[in-house]
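[SOLVED] Need 3D model of a four-part complex

Original post:
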Amino acid sequence: MLKISELAAQTGLSAHTIRFYEKHGLISASERSEAGYRYYSDADIRRAEFVKTARNIGFSLDDIGQLLSIRLDKDSHSCQEVTDITQHKLDEVNGKIAELKIMQQTLQRLLDSCGGGPEDATHCSIIEALEEGDVASTVSARNGGHS
Amino acid sequence: MLKISELAAQTGLSAHTIRFYEKHGLISASERSEAGYRYYSDADIRRAEFVKTARNIGFSLDDIGQLLSIRLDKDSHSCQEVTDITQHKLDEVNGKIAELKIMQQTLQRLLDSCGGGPEDATHCSIIEALEEGDVASTVSARNGGHS
DNA sequence: TATAAGCTTAGAGTTGGCTCTAAGGTCAAT
DNA sequence: ATTGACCTTAGAGCCAACTCTAAGCTTATA
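Solution:
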């Protein structure tokens, strides 16, 4: 049985974050001392590490919630539910990469067009491009936003 | 002279967003009617379009503030200041792309390992990988976070 | 026994960029 | 003169995932 700070040390999550995850149903302490101190069992620890791993990969807390409930009752969930969550996340990641690549290209093009020397910005081609608005490929962004 | 809704129509920004940008010093109306209505001159419109263009590329509002002050007084700013801002943004974008590519690879590897069929999740290799924690390449993320 | 480290809670604050609301004033058209 | 569309403001709310604070209790060590 670990205390919260010990679980924090093991998982690399902060005690604050562990409590935060508990509030969101991701992690819980299967026991409490009389004084209310959280005590984490081996199963709790494994769950916390699952959460940490999933978080590292980039799953949202919401995704992780779903993955955890599948993990808790594997028999009544299909493999496909898991791949759906994963595929959905992959799509999201691919979408973001695509957006960022457009930004990358635009920024690189701007930099290529401009020496960046110590001369004043009167004829700076970057400023000019921004003024002309001719920076081409605007981010298509189905979600409208820049992360 | 355009009213705010007209500027909104021209730029594709909402009137709310234009006021928000004004509050943050990016856009302003060089005139106001007696009743306080904003009226935008040609110069104001060009400035608003500059902001919109820079925003589309992915510059933060803070970056745009800097770019605008360079634009306002080109003589006393060097070209290099502009490339510095641009390069910094490019570095940031490249960093995010690198993070996302790691996620992408991990997610793809997970998907490849799992058929995703209708069978139950008892032996789901994705869940197993998350339980083992052996998902390899954790995002290095200098900033610690996923966008 | 006293002190410090560690635990508890509810709830507020952070980030960035909006987005919206409420309550009211203005203006153009009928 | 009245309707309805538009404008004004300050300020609240939203998103995700933390991060921190305050005030108070507990536990381990000296």
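Edit: DSSP finds six helices and two strands in chain A.
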